[in-house]
Amino acid sequence: MAGKLLGRFSQSHNNAIIDITVDNAMFSETTCPLTWIEDHAFHYLYNGDLWYYIRNGNSYEVIKHDANTGHHKIHPEGLSRSTIASHYTTMAGKLLGRFSQSHNNAIIDITVDNAMFSGTTCPLTWIEDHAFHYIHNGNFWYYIRNGNSYEVIKHDANTGHHKIHPEEIVRVCTFNLRCGHADLRTSNKWERRRTILKNCLENMQPTIIGTQEGYPQQLNEILDDLNESSSCWSYVGEEITQWRTINAIFYRHDILSLISTNTFWFNEHPLTFGAAWGAIGSRGCTRAHFQHKLTDHPFIIYNLHLDYPSQNARHHSIPVLLSQINQSDNQIDNVIVIGDFNNWPEKIAGEIPVDELILLGQKASEIEQMKQAGFIDTYQHGEIPSFNGFQSTGYGPKIDFVWISSNSIYRVEGETKIDEFHDNNGCFPSDHFPVYADLVHIS
């Protein structure tokens, strides 16, 4: 969030001052009148100079107008450490998402470090000068001012009030990338999709991304894009198939510590590269064991890509997965399984209605086995296709999953999402929609 708002301005609602701030901490604890220029920009007067904030995606670019030098962009990271130390106040639960609090028809980007609310527009209800609440996914979320920040309180009908620590939430995404060597002579070639995918991930703000079909060069380019603004991303994974694709697990190494990682394959000898059971090529899974740096909570991610079109190969692959989980991890309750399950009917004769495909996908052996083993699909909002074929409407069953176990030490916060992000020309980053869930440790 380059130039994200971090300080106090006198934008008010029912006499309540909203803490809009800028990463450039020199403005914290100041109260300056805002003047809205248009829906996406405002300015205010500070120390004799005009400062402009122009929305750029989910953040604001900072422009200073000096009477002598004119306009120039401010790069907040250029401030001295002493300046930051003297002004910076930790913003626990600071606002990071879109709410429909408006000024002259402009929506202010108030958000929560918990990125689960980014891109949502929810009506605010002010309770008193220092607090507001809104309804999200059927629950009341309270924001209570504590100094220059807001503490986040969730009210659940079953459990009552409990404080949410946004920095503890892990946003886990699965994303079939569509291999970079495909579609070279079409508008869906990787060279074009790369920027769209970069913008999609910047908008999503995940903590972990499990990818499928990525080539080494493609994955390195994604890593470069993720680290463009701050070098906080790494990935693990090795070549799974004869086509050199990798089931990569990208992760925020400033938030998570990598304890161990390994790869296995779906065949009779899982530690050996090779295909089995009629698969068209070798298929495998990347395992990564992480520990959250803030909470010390451990968890294990499995990222897989099952075969298509062989239903027999998929049917035999799940027991291999479950065996590897049982051998490697003492407790299934800290395991998360993500990936492309390719749970299509083996033979699709002609055009099958989407509703019928969805039903067949739900009953696929690979999905039934996951449920019987105690895993729960985090997406609970009805069946929506996650394969799109580069079209605006998906087709077929939901084949991309984020699973947690029924006795998981994690719970799902907010709404799991199938992200239909595309650019202004209607072009998609992949032929799959990314699917993500926000998970919180509850033990």
UniProtKB/TrEMBL annotation:
Signal sequence extent: none
Top-level taxon in the UniProt lineage: Eukaryota
SUPFAM superfamilies associated with the record: DNase I-like (SSF56219)
InterPro entries for the chain: CCR4/nocturin_mRNA_transcr, Endo/exonu/phosph_ase_sf, Endo/exonuclease/phosphatase
Pfam families in alphabetical order: Exo_endo_phos
Ranges of residues in domain Endonuclease/exonuclease/phosphatase: 173-432
Gene3D superfamilies: Endonuclease/exonuclease/phosphatase (3.60.10.10)
Molecular-function annotations in GO: 3'-5'-RNA exonuclease activity
Protein name: Endonuclease/exonuclease/phosphatase domain-containing protein
Organism: Adineta steineri
